[in-house]
Amino acid sequence: MTNRLRSLALGLVGATAVALPAFAVDLNVTCRCVIGGVNSGTAQWIEESVIPAFEAANPDVNVVLNQFGGEDAQLTQQLALDFSTGAGPDVTAFDGFLIPSFVEGGLLKSLDEVAGPEVNDWSGWAALSEGSRALMLYQDKYYGIPLGTDVRMINTRKDILAEAGIDADTWQPNSWEELLDAARAIKKAKPDSFPLQINAGVAMGEATTMQGYWMVLLGTGEAVTDENGKFIVSSQGILDTLNLYKTIYVDEKLGDQRAQLLADGRNRSFANFRDGVTALLVEGDYFYRSVTPEGSEFAVANRDEVQGWAKMPAKEPGAGIRGQDFVTISGGTGFVINPATDTPKEAWAFLSFMNEPAQLEAFQAIQPRITARTDVAIPNNPFLTETSQTLLPLTTARPNDPNYNAVSSEIQRMTEAVVSGELSPEEAMAQYKSAVIAIVGEENTVSLL
Amino acid sequence: MTTDLNTAPARRKPRNFALLSARAGAAFLTPAGILVSVFVIVPFFWVIFVSFTNRTLLGRTALNPEFVGLANYLALFDPATFFQRGQFGFSLILTTQFVLASALIGQALLGLLLAWLIQTVPPWVKRITETFVIAAWILPEVVIGFAWFAFLDRDQGTLNMLLESVGLPPGDFLLDSPFWVIVVFNTWRGAAFSMMLFNSAFSSIPPSYFQAADVAGASSWQKFRDIGLPLIRGHIVTDLILITMWTFNTFTPFLLTNGGPSYRTELVSIYNYRVAFQDFQFGKGAAVGVIMMLINLAFALVYLSLGRKKRA
User: How distant is the Cα of A234 from the closest Cα of chain B, in angstroms?
Assistant: First the structure.
C-alpha cells in the first residue's frame, strides 16, 4: 500500500515535471557577431538557419540570439563576470584558449557535468578531427564543441605590390629582411602608405598576441613557453621580435603606429587594408572569409583579384620553430554551455543541433571556412583550400595553460611599449619578465639570456 | 554611579524633541541599518580582507585563494617598479597632476571667473551661460564621453574641421596629448559646480559693499580682490576639497582614452578597474581600492574639520 502511494506520488511529481515544458523554455545564445557587422556570417547563420530549424524541431523551446558587437576582450570580461555570478547566456561562442583559465577558476564545467552523460553518446564526436577536438578539450574533458580552426599568413594587396614593381603572384619572402625590403619598396613608391602591419598593443587584445607576436616569435625558433611548459621571460627571440616591431613602427615607419595605439585600432588596420594604405597585413584566414567579403564594412573591391597571401617567413630560412622556414599558428573557437544554465538539456540539444552536418553545411553556404568536422565538405574556395593545405602542416598551438590569458595581456603591454616608442626592447622585456614572474611565480619561468 | 545618575537626565534632554519612542525609532531605523551594513559595511571589510589574498577571477587562484599578507601592498609599492608606466605609482602621480591641473586650476579658477563675470551681465546672458555650463555637468557621462571622442577624432572630428576651416593645422589630440585632453575635458565638465557655488557666495554679499566701492571709484579687479575674494574664502576651501575628492575618483576619462595610449591617461580609478576587472586580479585590485579609500578618508577628515572650525 505504501509502495503504491509512493508510486502514485512519484507519478504525480513526474507528470508535473513532464507537464512543465508545456510552458516554453527560453534559451539565450550569445556570440561576438552582428548581422552587417563583425562576424556577420555567424550571426546570419544562427539567426536564419539554426534557430528556425531548431525551433521547428523543438516547438517548446524559444531561442534568442544576443548579437554582441564589442571587442573580444569585452565579451571575455562579460562572460567571466556573468559566469561567476550565475548569470549570462545559456550557450555562448567561446575562444578555446580561454578554457583552462575559466575551468581552473570554476567558471566552466565539462559538457557531461552540465548536461548529463548522454553528451558522450553524441555521434558528432567521432566526426571531429583529432586536431580540432583538442581545441575545446582540457584535461581529457570536453568543454564545448569546436566550430572550426584557422591559420595565419601575410594577407597581400596584389595591386599595391605591383605598383612597387613586385610580382605579387610569385612574391614569397624567405626571411624577415625580404619582408622588410618589400615594405620599403612600397613605402618608396607610395610614401604616404603604411605598407606592413603586424598587430601590437593593448587595444587589439588577443589579436596582438596571436596574429602579431606569435607570428614573429615563432620565426625565431622560440615559443611563449619552453618544452617543459615554463614561460620564457627573457631571450634573444623576444628581443629579436621586439626589434622587428621597433623597425616597422618606430625606426622606419613602415606600419601605422596609430592603428596599434588607439582604442579602435584593429578596425583602423582593416580599413587601411581596404583603402590600399596597407599592402601586407598579418592576419588569419578569417580576415579573408569574414572581414573582406563583399557587403561587409571592410569589403575589398574585386577581392578575389586583388587580395592574395604569402607564408610568414622565419627570421632566416630554417630559423623558425622546429627548424621550419615558415611559421603559422592556429586557434579555434566553438560554443560552450553556461554551467549555471537553468535548462542544461535544452542547451545541449541546441549546441549539438547546430553542430550537425546539416547546419554546418548551411554555414558553409553562407561563409566557407575550415571546418572541425571531417564529414562536412572542405569549402570549395581556392583561398581557403590553398592556405589550409599549405599551412596546417606547419601550424602550432598556444599552451593549454590557465595562466596563458594573463601572460598574453602582458605580451600586449610589452609590444605596445615598444611600438609607441616609450621603451626600448630591453626595457620592455625587463618589465614583461617581472610581470610574468608575478603571475606564474619564478619557478614557472625561465630566462635564456 | 552617582555621576551617571546625575548626567543621565542631561543626556536624555534632547530626546524630548523626538516624535517617537526610542524603541520605535530603532525599529524604523533597522531596515536602513540592515541595508547599510549589507551593502556598505560588509563589502568594506570584505574588500580589506580580499586585499590580503591572491584571489583572481580566472585561473587556479580563483577557487583556492591563499592568504598572502601584505604581498599585494608591497607589490604596489615596490620601489623597483613603482614609477614605471602602467604601475601604481605612475598612476598616482598622474592623478595628482590631473587633480592639480583640471580641478584646482581648471574647474575652480574657471568657475570663479565665470561666477564673477555673470554678476554684472544682464540677467538673460547670465541665464544662458548658466544653462550651458550646467548642461555640461548634468548630461550622462557616456553621452559626453562619446561626444568628445567624436569631437577630437583626427580624421573626422569636429575640432579638426574647425581648425582647418580657419587655416590652422589639424592635430592628433587623443594620441599626441591625451593628458591635456582629459584635463580640458574634466575642466569643461566640472566647472559648473564651482560656478554655482561661487555664484551663490557672491550673491550673498550685500550689494551695498560694492556700491560703496563704486562710489570710491574702485576698479572691477579691486572689488574682486578686496571685497569678493575675502568674503567667500570659506566657500573656496569647501569647493577645493570637494572637487579634489571628485576628480581624484573620476572614471569618465576612460570613455575617451581607455586609459591609453600606453597608460598615459591611466588615473588611479582606471588603474584600479584594469587590475580588478580586466586582469581579474581581485586581491591586488582590492588593495588598490583600500588605498584609495584611505586617501579619500584623509580628504573627508580635512573637509569635516574645516567645517567644524567654521561653525565654531
Answer: 17
Cell of A175: 626571411
CB contact under 8 A, A263 and B57: no
Confidence of residue A1 (pLDDT cuts 50, 70, 90): very low
Q: What is the DSSP letter of A105?
A: T
User: Is residue B146 less than 8 Å (CB to CB) from chain A?
Assistant: no
Band of pLDDT at residue B310, cut at 50, 70 and 90:
low
3-state DSSP: chain B helix, strand, coil percent, rounded to 5? 75, 0, 25
**What angle separates helix A425-440 from helix A236-245, to the nearest 10 degrees?**
130
| Host H or E run for residue B248 | helix B233-249
Cα B276 from Cα A21, distance rounded (Å) = 41
- Three-class DSSP labels, A13-61: HHHHHHHHHHCCEEEEEEECCCCCCCCHHHHHHHHHHHHHHHHHHCCCE
Q: A138 with A100: CB under 8 angstroms? A: yes
Find the closest chain B residue to A83 by CA distance. B57
Number of other residues whose CB lies within 10 A of the CB of residue A221? 21
Q: Can you name the residues that pair with A107 across neighbouring β-strands?
A: none
Q: Tell me which of B262, B274, B277, B281 to substitute to probe the interface with A (most A C-beta atoms closer than 10 Å).
A: B262
For A65, the grid coordinates are: 540570439
The whole-number average pLDDT for the span B44-68 is 88
Q: What is the pLDDT of residue B5?
A: 46
Torsion of CA B196, B201, B207, B213, to 10 degrees: -110
**Which residues of chain A does B174 touch, with a Cβ-Cβ cutoff of 8 Å?**
262
- Best B50, B54, B58 member to test A by mutation, with max A CBs in 10 Å, is B58
Q: What is the amino acid identity at position B72?
A: N
Q: Give the model confidence (pLDDT) of B224-238 as tens digits.
A: 888 888 888 888 888
CA separation for the pair B226, A342 (Å, rounded): 71
CA distance B198 to B65: 51
Q: What is the DSSP letter of B53?
A: B
- The region of weakest confidence among A14-18, A240-244, B212-216, B250-254 is A14-18
pTM of the model: 0.84
B86 shares contact with chain A (CB less than 8 Å): yes
> A231: which strand partners?
A225, A445
Q: How many residues does chain A have?
A: 449
Query: B226: Cβ–Cβ under 8 A, 6 or more apart, which residues?
Result: B213, B218
* pLDDT 10s digits, B141-185: 888 888 888 888 887 888 888 998 888 888 888 888 889 999 999
What distance separates the 2 farthest-apart alpha carbons in chain B? Answer: 87
Of A77, A81, A262, the CB nearest to B174: A262
What would the pLDDT profile of A31-57 be if each residue is shown by its tens digit?
A: 998 888 788 888 999 999 999 999 999
Q: Is B64 on the interface with A (CB under 8 A)?
A: no
The reply to whether B62 touches chain A by the CB within 8 Å rule is yes
Q: Based on C-alpha coordinates, what's the Rg of chain A?
A: 24
Cross-chain residue pair A258–B57, CB shorter than 8 Å? no
For a pLDDT cut of 70, what percent of chain B falls above it? 93
- DSSP code of A195? -
